Amino acid sequence: MKEFKDSIFFGEILLQTKIAFRANERLDASQDTFDNLEVWCSVQSILVSAANVSKILWPTTKKHQKRGDRLREILKVEESNPLSNREFRNHFEHYDSRIEEWFDNCSGGVYVDLAMNPSLRDESLEKFYHRGYNLFNKTLIFRNELLDLNEILNALAAIQNNCKGLVLDFP
Length: 171
What we know:
Elements: H1 2-33, H2 36-57, H3 65-75, H4 87-93, H5 95-105, E1 115-116, E2 131-134, E3 139-142, E4 145-148, H6 149-163
Parallel strand pairs: 1-2
Antiparallel strand pairs: 2-3, 3-4
């Protein structure tokens, strides 16, 4: 029965990686059109898909830890894989809490959000950037924390490749 259940998880991992790669295609295309809404839709899709894979491979409940261990072993996924850390993704998923924390702890009125290419701007504003995306190197910024989307996409590609042959693939 575990083999059947594992194949369901592998199928879900394949689906989530394909969603992330499709979002990455949209992200690349949005650079030509300067469509900021599409940028953020694509970024969010990549983060959510990566998080869904992460939750399958690193379950949050103790009850499912063995499943995560088993699937990571089968797929040859190291503990140090960038998908294992969901902290950055949580900034986006729990953005409402981040807003509350900001205004509880900061008295200033400067608040810069959804910045495009914040790394190329005035460094004196860095501490005020909440969510930012650098088109030139596919990095996300959240309050001085950096996430390289290329690393996330590469990790997803490696896992997707290791899923092949374990489950029927679909378009």
